[in-house]
What we know:
The protein is an alpha+beta fold and 89 residues long. The protein has one domain: Arc Repressor Mutant, subunit A (Orthogonal Bundle), CATH 1.10.10. Helix content is 44%, strand content 31%. The protein contains three helices and five strands; from the N terminus they run E-E-E-E-H-H-H-E. The strands form two sheets. The protein has a three-stranded antiparallel sheet with strand order 2-3-4. The longest helix is centred in the last third of the chain and has 17 residues. The radius of gyration is 13 Å and the shape is globular. The termini are close together.
Amino acid sequence: MRILQNCKLRDIAGxxxxxxxxxxxxxxxxxxxxxxxxxxxxxELKDKSFTSADAAALLVNSYGIDAAxxxxxxxxxxxxxxxxxxxxx
Length: 89
């Protein structure tokens, strides 16, 4: 899977948000709030193909959490990104 290239990570009122850019304008109907782990996943995976296992491995390697927590957290991130239409297969 891949993250759509028309996304922009923005800081709005102290919150990090991933917003879709369509027709040259930001589309605020497709917004995902990003905590620090979501930002890490986005920044590391935005320019490459990846699997859910790749996302979980990034969390394990970056935060030292156990694999089960990493799978849960990365799955939640992928679900949010997919619901917002920001992931392609």
